[in-house]
Amino acid sequence: MSFFQCKFYKSSTLVSELQEVRNDYQLRRMEKIISGANLLLLDELSYEKFNQEECELLFKVIAERSECSSTVIIHQSCSSIFR
What we know:
globular
């Protein structure tokens, strides 16, 4: 039996976790775990401001998934929150 694996991250949380494991030299291990998911959901990407290093970490994760797995970026506009 095959299972569909999905990972959900708030974008700022994912970047923080990537930085933590990068400092512990476990970045590649976490990238493999993320790339193993059939679907990656990233929430609140447009609300965050990332520095150059954070952008590179996030871009690498998304780029590595682009040919073999799906990534969905979730965005809820502020106007729809107050309706």
